[in-house]
Amino acid sequence: MNNKVVDSRISPVGHLDALSRGEINKLLKNNQGNLYQLFRSCALAVLASGNYSDDGKALLEQYKDFDIQLLVQERGIKLEVMGAPAEAFVDGVMINGIAELLFSVMRDILYGHEKQSFPCANSEQATDAVFKILRNAKLIRPNIEPNVVVCWGGHSIRREEYNYTKKVGYELGLRGLDICTGCGPGAMKGPMKGATISHAKQRHTDGRYIGLTEPGIIAAESPNPIVNELVILPDIEKRLEAFVRVGHGFIVFPGGAGTAEEILYLLGILLDPANEPIPFPLVFTGPESAREYFQQIDDFIGITLGEKAQHRYQIIIDDQQQVAATMRQGINDVRAFRKREADAYNFNWLLRIDHDFQQPFEPDHQNMAELKLNKDQPAHKLAADLRRAFSGIVAGNVKDQGIRAIEQHGPFKLQGDTAIMEPMDKLLQSFVEQQRMKLPGTEYHPCYQLVK
Amino acid sequence: MNNKVVDSRISPVGHLDALSRGEINKLLKNNQGNLYQLFRSCALAVLASGNYSDDGKALLEQYKDFDIQLLVQERGIKLEVMGAPAEAFVDGVMINGIAELLFSVMRDILYGHEKQSFPCANSEQATDAVFKILRNAKLIRPNIEPNVVVCWGGHSIRREEYNYTKKVGYELGLRGLDICTGCGPGAMKGPMKGATISHAKQRHTDGRYIGLTEPGIIAAESPNPIVNELVILPDIEKRLEAFVRVGHGFIVFPGGAGTAEEILYLLGILLDPANEPIPFPLVFTGPESAREYFQQIDDFIGITLGEKAQHRYQIIIDDQQQVAATMRQGINDVRAFRKREADAYNFNWLLRIDHDFQQPFEPDHQNMAELKLNKDQPAHKLAADLRRAFSGIVAGNVKDQGIRAIEQHGPFKLQGDTAIMEPMDKLLQSFVEQQRMKLPGTEYHPCYQLVK
Amino acid sequence: MNNKVVDSRISPVGHLDALSRGEINKLLKNNQGNLYQLFRSCALAVLASGNYSDDGKALLEQYKDFDIQLLVQERGIKLEVMGAPAEAFVDGVMINGIAELLFSVMRDILYGHEKQSFPCANSEQATDAVFKILRNAKLIRPNIEPNVVVCWGGHSIRREEYNYTKKVGYELGLRGLDICTGCGPGAMKGPMKGATISHAKQRHTDGRYIGLTEPGIIAAESPNPIVNELVILPDIEKRLEAFVRVGHGFIVFPGGAGTAEEILYLLGILLDPANEPIPFPLVFTGPESAREYFQQIDDFIGITLGEKAQHRYQIIIDDQQQVAATMRQGINDVRAFRKREADAYNFNWLLRIDHDFQQPFEPDHQNMAELKLNKDQPAHKLAADLRRAFSGIVAGNVKDQGIRAIEQHGPFKLQGDTAIMEPMDKLLQSFVEQQRMKLPGTEYHPCYQLVK
Amino acid sequence: MNNKVVDSRISPVGHLDALSRGEINKLLKNNQGNLYQLFRSCALAVLASGNYSDDGKALLEQYKDFDIQLLVQERGIKLEVMGAPAEAFVDGVMINGIAELLFSVMRDILYGHEKQSFPCANSEQATDAVFKILRNAKLIRPNIEPNVVVCWGGHSIRREEYNYTKKVGYELGLRGLDICTGCGPGAMKGPMKGATISHAKQRHTDGRYIGLTEPGIIAAESPNPIVNELVILPDIEKRLEAFVRVGHGFIVFPGGAGTAEEILYLLGILLDPANEPIPFPLVFTGPESAREYFQQIDDFIGITLGEKAQHRYQIIIDDQQQVAATMRQGINDVRAFRKREADAYNFNWLLRIDHDFQQPFEPDHQNMAELKLNKDQPAHKLAADLRRAFSGIVAGNVKDQGIRAIEQHGPFKLQGDTAIMEPMDKLLQSFVEQQRMKLPGTEYHPCYQLVK
């Protein structure tokens, strides 16, 4: 394959702290035991932001000669890229937003991606790690008003669903709300585009377009350059925790297995009795054509986790103003609650997240097979294992490591109560039929098998 | 008719100088000989920005009870609006961009709209007046790089033409270029929307979306709130001069009579022998469907003004990147030229504009009838009268006063050489057929009659 | 005399609007009827800021070859100085603060110093002129808290008095107050130096050091470079009005005839019955050694203007904290009053200034002789003529024109009631004895003669 | 003793990162093993900034009831102080600069003062620790020009020496140079005051007044509130290293034992053969009256460390302009060198500092007795031990722990070559005679004894 590529040298963009000589060493190519490979692959994902593919392996193979180097200079460092995807440049100059993301990648890889960086022996330590990584990325600001809406949903949605996410983003922006997503295409890009226009109209000049990602997903969901605060969390659990600690309101657009994973993660936390009093605005929404999709999700939740879980969210179909007004009101309630409890506006300390939810889940064949998908446990525990099941399916679909495992050992095997496995089967089948498992146009080969 | 309206009190937005007691008096409703009525009608146009209509009279009748008042306070003034169009507000709060535009209206009405404000006895004085009005509006900044692209074209264009203007705006913005338009809908809004997205990606945070208008046109081409630098020039000639003095590059999208007027105005100036050495990037562009339209314009220019005129512009069809690259290069040339000649980057002093072009043209029946539409004169003089002819047609189509005149006295009569009148007839007919004279969907009753 | 001089080219400093070609012409040397000479002499005064002399003629003679030129460039103008006093430069580069003042001079000369610029046929027009000149100089800011303390007093005071003014300035600055003076040495510099230190400690980073001057006095009271907002009013009456409209609190340090003039100006206004309800904090202060001086002033006021006048001020000796606390409290009262009356925080519109006070007083021999220094008139009218008498004495002491008049026609003759002339004689004598008429070390030849 | 004290609650000043719940716990009073006591004593030192004493124990005893608490709120933290010295407040409100310093103390105590924070097993690690502490304090900025002048000298110097330090600071500031000191009174305050005035004149609005201190010295050399970048390093060695890594030029004013310590530290590093090529501008300066003092220092250096050491500095007497011009030139050379070597402008990475110099020296009786004060070693090793000797004397004079040790065990005993001990004796005697060991007016009881 013949790609257009560019070589270039770029100066730091954004607020970047100086690096020590020790830190610089960790990113150098020829340094043993360093972070260079991780840096290179995340950097490539950022540079390929227009080049959507959800095959994690493909990108690295496509740009085999891509290289990135730190240059030390009297005023700080520069980055030199070689063989970089041409679409990151205009007339030979890197798009500023992409350059900024590149330096964010560098910053985060250095700070939080060494195994020993953050001990996470208990829930407090894990939360502390998430906080410090976000703070180091300047995401935790001292004097904000609650206004961050997390938007979740598929990266490979249909045009009309995409347009709807733009309209929702526009209405959120009109109401002074900022956007946080997983920072890829589709439902992760639409709200940002919409909000960009309304922020301009509202002179909301410091609009935040937050993207939270992790090394395993970044290649498939490459951050679009509107994102002006990107954080690469070290693993998927820290990424999910970052979303719930940083967001003030939550919207779920149509998506596939990844979206289901996110919904189950949220419900697992919200069903924890300790979190009952905490306000947490959560809306599932899409255009008219997505009505059935959300009906299926709602049914699945009702059957598996019960009515209590269903009370934690609201479904609004095809009414972007209603969605935005609901978020605005919900966030006002969050603000009042935090003020009363002296909980920080910029980080949801009070929300209890079980240590179980924070521990990395390695979606290999054994772990997938051992998930407890039955009702002999509290709802929030079941939600946790359901979340893991969907997480594994996402890995098998789009993550480099997951794809290789499936190639080698065949599909993951999942087993559990029929009362859970049957609705799950139905839900996954509908995702496949609706082409929500892969980018439209590609044929889907399931990476899982339900053992009923 | 039953409109949703809102009453509200708004604080100054944007950089606004303090007002003297004398200035405040001029805007008060009950002050004799004041500027109140002008202020009220322009303010209403700004507030009705979503409410596109091109009937200048309609708006004032639709919002009969609309009122606006200055309130004097210890920290400066506030504005109180009563009976204002509801679409200017979100959840009862005025959209910030609209509030900013409202204060711009106030600023400009005060500064440049009293007859005696600026004597314009000769070309120098007229240019000085334009400069001072723009400077007072903070449009003339001390330390800029040339990057302002003026985009002209119809306010009532088709969806696909509109989408194309967005794409062009996006590509301009990617190259660090700012947008200046007549600030209504259609071709005046699309480039700004497109550039807003690419400016975000380029972190071009101080992107300028300049709108230049005048009291006679503002109601029909209400500024959209993305506009962050609005200037209400006192008359159409000063508005046109402002465009050519402030812009560094010029793009013409498809439009109707107004667009033809603008093209003829430009050519009238550029054909002046004194302006021959001055670089002036000018591109006519549209999607594939506009190819024929520009062919007709090009033919008309060739026949009436000659080949020299045709050399002053370039026609590019359906290639937004080519358009943007041409502008970027053209503006680089402008920069080099101004640097060499020590002409200001922020105001094109060297361009000679004949005093003829600066004097307000009152498009009444007599003046229209007396236009010299024949070839017994230098091309730039003919261009000037052709420009006036189209200006009168625009007035008869959409301006309050023009519409009333036509209602009273019947269509304007235009006469001249057959070699001019026939192509003109053909051009105007094609505008009518292509529904470029009025907002699509309304039937067009010609306001002119060509006497061949 | 052999002065060290420097040639240099300087770029604009501070917020400077672009100039039109017409404006630039007015400042060019070879342009007839222009403002060049005025510009040159004021510019020289600014450049000679360390070079204190109070002989208005001397400076121009000392730097005969000094020249200043505008250079037009693509990014705006530059100034070229030739034969400029070397003390304005450090290692060949002009001190930034001085460069800023130079551009302020240019701005003000252009705006307000053409005779026809501002008609002042009545009190409203004169006030409007003062407002617009200050606004053009960005002195009238939209969103301030009242905090400007005007400090008056001699430019040629003793070391211990000077040190005291520094201490007062320090205490004012600690309380968040800004300083406004006539911007020369002595009592006009000390408070600014003191406040600079305390503003640094309070992180009051946008501290304002306002200097108000006029062409006749600027050479003798050259602005020190701490001044970061300089305005050259066109005449002494507008300068005095600017002080009282812009200041929120007023302190008078020991001085000479100029200080007496300022005190009488204030009392003339404050004794106007229309101004009775307006709060106007006014303190006379100095170190212990100045106790007698203020006693003499107080006596003179008591005898000539009566007890009511004495109630308008407070005398505080040798207690800088008490002075600052009194100002802080007084300004709080001013704030409350303006808020209640909806009078602007940035300009004292409500204060009535009689048109008499606004009209330039030409201190020639005839006008001086005709002053009505008797008690057959309201106190505020007498104060006005007493003010004029002292104004004439200042002119005869230090102003170019005044000095020449005295050289030609001998001392001014003043006559009036013995009950006024005798205390006046005593007061002036004490000024002479205390060396308050001239810079210490020079012998004083009286420029006036009291005809009792 | 009866002190005026104030209770107050203060909001964060300066750029302060949010704190995690874990970090907040470390500063709470009732938390075991925490940093509270350290925080309290440093905070008190900052609050007592006007209250100069050089008895480290006195302050804590004087304000026994002083307490400081963190309050957690929705927008971040506040600090509550009880029983704080009244001089930190104006009209009941804490001086902003002091509040800022207080939050700096909090930041640094949290970051670098836990034993385990930074392993320093070798020179690289120790340097890395210094870098990270400074970076965390925002002292290491990404895009600076070299302009930091470190000023050392006594905190208890005479009026005329103090005035001279102000004049030097003024001249440095005129040349765009910033000031870094140990941040107490005397020679550490004068240059900052002088530079504040000239920075104002040069519109150098972001002037840096850097103070580097450590917990053992802060009480005796309380930072004055002009300091706008304060860092509390964890120990004296890191503090000294911070000076040499951050400064671009170095000035030594007259002082006592502490100043001698600093000079010896510098020479110890500069005599290291590895540092020979590195430019390092170093000037000793004072008014005429200090000529003899520097003669004695120079002699002592010549005798003990040799001529090579003497070549590393320049002595300039009573010529502030010469000092400033020398610094300006020297720093230009530093800039050229770093550019050539691609060494950072903001941190002197290339300077080699032996691990010996980085290890904390505990000045107890045994360690002092064991110092090798003889010539059987390279000059830079001898310089290191001489530095430790003076360091111990400073501790015995003004540090809490040192004073207690002397009270208990009598004076430190120092021994070595006569060729060193005799000149040292002479030097120390002259310090005592010139009252440079203690604040003038207090009798000095030597804390050391030279065993010859």
TrEMBL record, chains A, B, C, D:
Where the record annotates domain Pyrimidine/purine nucleotide 5'-monophosphate nucleosidase N-terminal, the positions are 9-114
Q: What is its EC number?
A: 3.2.2.4
What the entry lists under InterPro entries is as follows: LOG_fam, LOG_family_nucleotidases, PpnN, PpnN-like_sf, PpnN_C, PpnN_N
Q: What's a Gene Ontology MF term here?
A: hydrolase activity, acting on glycosyl bonds
Root EC class: hydrolase
Note the Pfam families from the entry: DUF4478 (PF14793), Lysine_decarbox (PF03641), PpnN_C (PF11892)
Q: Which reaction does it catalyse?
A: AMP + H2O = D-ribose 5-phosphate + adenine
Name all Pyrimidine/purine nucleotide 5'-monophosphate nucleosidase C-terminal domain ranges.
Answer: 331-450
Keywords (alphabetical) are: Glycosidase, Hydrolase
PANTHER family, per database record: CYTOKININ RIBOSIDE 5'-MONOPHOSPHATE PHOSPHORIBOHYDROLASE, PYRIMIDINE_PURINE NUCLEOTIDE 5'-MONOPHOSPHATE NUCLEOSIDASE
Recorded protein name is AMP nucleosidase
